[in-house]
Amino acid sequence: LQRCGKSCRLRWVNYLRPDLKRGSITPEEERLILDLHARFGNRWSLIAEKIPGRTDNEIKNFWRSRIRKRLPPSQYSDDHEA
């Protein structure tokens, strides 16, 4: 398999880094995501900086698949997608 430099970097950042957490997002992390989303909106990279071991993409996917379904539309907005 041949990968370009960008592809190698993204694979390292999102999957291979030794400090990445594996497994489900904990209830504590979920509360933190809710608090940070209230502060920063859909700025997933900024939120990920505050949650060690989780990637921006992982947090965004968690938000879209789990949390957003439980909130009324007034508490989130897709207008500011990052």
TrEMBL record:
GO terms for cellular component: nucleus. CDD domains: SANT. Residues 17-71 form the HTH myb-type domain. SMART domains: SANT. Residues 17-67 form the Myb-like domain. Its main location: nucleus. It is found in: Nucleus. Keywords: DNA-binding, Nucleus, Repeat, Transcription, Transcription regulation. It holds the Pfam family Myb_DNA-binding. One of its GO terms (molecular function) is DNA binding. InterPro entries: Homeodomain-like_sf, Myb_dom, Plant_SW-associated_TFs, SANT/Myb. PANTHER family: MYB DOMAIN PROTEIN 55. This is Uncharacterized protein. It comes from Taxus chinensis (Chinese yew).
